[in-house]
C-alpha cells in the first residue's frame, strides 16, 4: 500500500464514521471522522502508519475532550429569550368578561384569551388588571 492508498483509506474511514453520525445522531462519530480526515492529511504528506494512527487518536480524543463538555453545557442551558406561552407567564392582562374559577375572558398581549382564576373562590370584574400565572392549553390562569 503506497502513500496515496493510505490517505484514500483514511477518507473512506471518515465517510464510514459519518454514516453512523447521521443515523444515530451521536456527535462522537463526527469527531472520529474528523480524526480520520486529519490522519488522511498526515498520510498524504508521506508520514508512516504509526504517525497516522497517532494523529487519528490524538485528534479524536482531543475533540471529544474539548467539544463534548462544551456541547453538554450548551444543551443544559435554557434559552434566554422566552417565547410562546412562556413569554406570556407573568404578564398583565385586562379582564373583558368576568373571570372566576369557572372561566371568563381577558385581553392578553393584544389577543382575547379564555381565563380562569387561580383561586376558585375569587372573581375579577371587567376592566380589572390581572396577572397571568400560568397557561393551561388555551386558558390563562390569572391572579
TrEMBL record:
Residue spans crossing the bilayer: 6-23, 53-71
NfeD-like C-terminal domain: residues covered: 85-142
Subcellular location(s) per record: Membrane
GO CC, one annotated term: plasma membrane
Pfam family, one: NfeD
Keyword Nuclease attached: no
InterPro entries: Membrane_assoc_protease (IPR052165), NA-bd_OB-fold (IPR012340), NfeD-like_C (IPR002810)
Sorted UniProt keywords: Membrane, Transmembrane, Transmembrane helix
Record-linked Gene3D superfamilies: Nucleic acid-binding proteins
Transmembrane helix in keyword set: yes
The protein, known as: Membrane protein
Topology in membrane: Multi-pass membrane protein
